[in-house]
Design goal:
single chain; about 400 residues; mainly alpha; 15 helices; elongated
């Protein structure tokens, strides 16, 4: 995969998303319905890469190759740039174009195996960019995969000569477990949410792999639900960084009473991610479990339940710090704890004892920050309450 070496951003990385997508719109008619969804992802990715390439050279963590370079050098050449699918009447008896195109979307969505760009992007990107990447960019790639298999290929293609459905199912199950376990081991809250996104997006791949109308509808429902849930969590994290500059989970102790709206919305998003009714996350997982039972895929049921348990482990750990632990004195006068290490401490123990905790100086974010956060938190509940309407009148008729 490699890492980007140049400190200077290339001009190509600064092109607007519209210019990058214009050629596709003219020469790829079958992709025109997806162009409005691709514009935000292209623009955000280019701006993010340009910003990250300006990081100091001493930062050894670097930035992995983005999905744009990945699909140009590896995935799309393997798929022959999808030339066999210039129109819906093309020949559909080969698996290389599907593998290449599906691999490109899998990389854009942060799927297991091509996920290396996602945690670093979420950790180092500005908080405002994170709040857009989480609900928009990765979901566009997931939606593109669903749209490709539903609209471009004939029925039964996923289970044809090339076992695409089986591959997606296996990779999705592995991705769910991998993302959940990796998230449970993180102390940086943004990296935790990044690995959580890998797990949740693998859930969508499982729905495509099952291939039944109920599973595909559950995957589409999870695209919408996860966008609302993860946007809530990332916007709450951005609000915390805006006020106190902290992003390590062990430094958030006692923050709940100081920022009640922000941390309340974070709690709602966490409950929805775990899948507790009546939040949105419960119902998309419920429909996926039901689809697995109908197909006799009990491993899907077990992995979905295990994923909910692991999600509770790493998100409730944050809620425990926020609501049940007392605030700790901050050993450094710097608010941003991005480069803190467990061994760092104040040079004078007396000063450390007398220093007022950073969390105690925190206050609620301004209106233009907490209002969209509260609305997103409410959306996770509203989507859960009206899940039957969405499934029966929108999603199931569409996939059938």
């Amino acid at each position: 995969m490699g890492r980007a070496r140049s400190r200077r951003p290339s001009r190509r990385l600064l092109w607007p998303g519209a210019a990058a997508s214009g050629r596709t719109y003219r020469h790829r008619p079958h992709r025109r319905p997806l162009q409005p969804l691709r514009l935000p992802g292209d623009s955000v990715t280019r701006r993010l890469r340009a910003r990250l390439h300006r990081r100091p050279q001493g930062d050894a963590r670097g930035f992995p190759l983005s999905h744009h370079r990945l699909h140009r050098r590896c995935l799309l050449p393997a798929g022959c740039r999808f030339h066999l699918l210039r129109d819906r009447h093309a020949e559909h008896d080969r698996g290389a174009p599907v593998a290449g195109r599906g691999g490109e979307h899998e990389g854009s969505a942060g799927g297991r195996g091509v996920h290396l760009w996602l945690p670093d992007a979420y950790e180092h990107a500005p908080s405002s960019v994170n709040s857009l990447i989480a609900p928009v960019m990765t979901k566009v790639a997931a939606y593109a995969m669903l749209r490709m298999f539903l609209s471009v290929f004939p029925p039964g293609y996923l289970s044809g000569t090339v076992p695409i459905a089986d591959a997606l199912l296996v990779l999705g199950l592995i991705g769910i477990v991998f993302g959940s376990v990796a998230a449970a081991g993180q102390t940086d809250i943004r990296r935790m949410l990044a690995y959580s996104s890998i797990s949740q997006l693998a859930f969508i791949a499982v729905g495509i792999g099952l291939g039944t109308p109920l599973a595909l509808a559950a995957a589409l429902l999870h695209v919408v639900n996860h966008a609302a849930m993860k946007a809530t969590l990332f916007l709450a994290t951005a609000s915390v960084r805006f006020r106190v500059g902290l992003q390590r989970t062990h430094n958030l102790a006692g923050l709940g009473p100081r920022m009640p709206l922000t941390m309340g919305a974070f709690a709602v998003g966490s409950v929805a991610m775990v899948g507790i009714p009546p939040t949105a996350g419960f119902f998309s997982k419920w429909y996926m479990v039901q689809a697995g039972v109908d197909e006799g895929q009990w491993i899907v049921v077990a992995v979905v339940l295990l994923s909910s348990l692991l999600t509770a482990v790493y998100l409730f750990k944050v809620l425990e710090q926020v609501y049940l632990r007392p605030a700790k004195p901050e050993p450094s006068t710097h608010h941003d704890d991005e480069h803190d290490s467990p061994g760092e401490s104040a040079s004078h123990p007396v000063e450390q004892q007398a220093m007022r905790p950073v969390v105690e100086r925190a206050r609620e974010a301004p209106l233009d920050v907490w209002l969209p956060l509260v609305l997103l938190g409410a959306a996770t509940v509203v989507l859960g309450v009206f899940n039957v309407v969405i499934m029966e009148h929108v999603l199931l008729p569409g996939v059938s």
